[in-house]
Design goal:
Layout: H1 3-15, E1 20-23, H2 34-43, E2 47-52, H3 59-65, E3 71-75, H4 80-87, H5 92-106, E4 110-116, H6 124-134, E5 138-143, H7 150-153, H8 161-177, E6 183-186, E7 189-190, H9 191-196, H10 212-215, E8 219-221, E9 226-229, E10 241-242, H11 248-258, H12 260-274, E11 282-283, H13 285-295
Parallel strand pairs: 1-2, 2-3, 3-4, 4-5, 5-6
Antiparallel strand pairs: 7-11, 8-9, 9-10
Helix pairs in contact: 1-2, 12-13
Bound molecules: S-adenosylmethionine.
S-adenosylmethionine (SAM) binds near residues 52, 113 and 142.
Length: about 300
């Protein structure tokens, strides 16, 4: 995809009410036009985030990111051995940690993302402490999902209901430990919070007059230019279309008429399922949404 297509999509997204542009991958620091796209997003008043494996954050790359990156999120999958195993590289942990002094010196606000599996909750406290010692502003715990490489290489490693419930308690403890010192973000939700806030999960209001960001957020642009709701690898049935065929506003106009109703139905059905009573009430809303979407024929 030419960088100009992304530039156009970023400014169009801003006009449609989106306030944050996040760059992931693949490895976004390998993408040469990244600084150009970050500058473009900042010029349009957006907040920017970059998610990286942290292995290539040389002084030159950090100089390009400084001033246009609001949050640099570095992946940290546990102690050196676990991190390297998860990433299939003996060098992953050391190469990342070697870059951290330069990251700190760059003054780019940074954090770490810890991928929670069925087997690594016992390393979360260590990872939080590592993040804090390194000067991180954010520690995010994101559950493994069966997408991408994980769908064939890490089968059976996504945290089950019991592990998720244990993680909920452990994250609560970590959150209290770092209160006022480091932001802790946990990407699982308690069913009670979900039941009490239905308007955060589905929406039956009119589509025609509201900005796209109020109808579907986040939006993901996939490597082939397809614009997807909610997450990488989401069911193609719900795609807004492709940037290789039309601009984002053109896709949005058509989708308001044809696609939005179906997405509303999906969100409502997922909400009803998520709100059911269950003994272990910690849910992965995004994963449930993806599973419901994949099950629709
Ligand atoms: C897909 S990576 C891309 C950016 C970069 N290459 C990296 O390693 O951070 C973005 C984030 O998603 C996480 N991730 C990758 N596959 C995942 C999966 N199947 N489930 C949950 N998180 C995943 C990574 O650990 C990383 O924090």
């Amino acid at each position: 995809m030419p960088a100009s297509t992304f530039e156009r999509a970023i400014s169009d997204a801003r006009s449609e009410g989106f306030a944050v542009a996040s760059f992931s991958g693949g490895e976004p620091t390998l993408y040469k036009p990244l600084p150009q796209l970050l500058r473009h997003a900042k010029a349009y008043g957006m907040q920017t985030t970059v998610t990286s494996n942290g292995m290539l954050l040389t002084q030159a790359r950090l100089d390009d990111l400084a001033g246009v990156t609001d949050t640099l999120a570095i992946s940290l999958d546990g102690i050196r051995e676990s991190h390297n195993r998860m990433r299939g590289s003996d060098r992953a942990f050391d190469a990342m940690t070697e870059c951290l002094p330069a990251v700190r010196a760059s003054k780019i606000p940074f954090g770490f993302i810890f991928t929670l599996t069925q087997y690594n909750l016992d390393e979360a406290a260590w990872a939080a402490d590592f993040a804090f010692q390194q000067g991180a502003a954010l520690f995010q715990i994101h559950p493994l999902e069966q997408v991408g490489r994980a769908s064939h290489l890490l089968v059976g490693s996504r945290p089950d209901d019991l592990e998720s419930a244990c993680a909920y308690l452990e994250v609560d403890r970590i959150r209290r430990q770092y209160e006022g010192k480091m932001l802790i973000q946990f990407d699982l939700i308690h069913a009670t919070i979900l039941r009490e806030n239905p308007d955060r999960f589905f929406d039956e209001r009119d589509a025609m007059t509201r900005p796209l960001a109020e109808l579907v957020s986040p939006l993901v642009i996939e490597p082939d230019g397809r614009v997807m709701p909610f997450g990488y690898g989401f069911s193609a049935r719900y795609a807004l279309g492709s940037l290789t065929e039309a601009t984002l506003p053109q896709l949005a106009t058509a989708w308001r008429v044809t696609g939005y109703r179906e997405l509303q139905d999906l969100c409502l059905a997922t909400f009803q399922d998520a709100a059911k009573h269950r003994d272990l009430p910690i849910l992965n809303w995004w994963e449930m949404l993806g599973e419901h979407a994949a099950a629709v024929h």
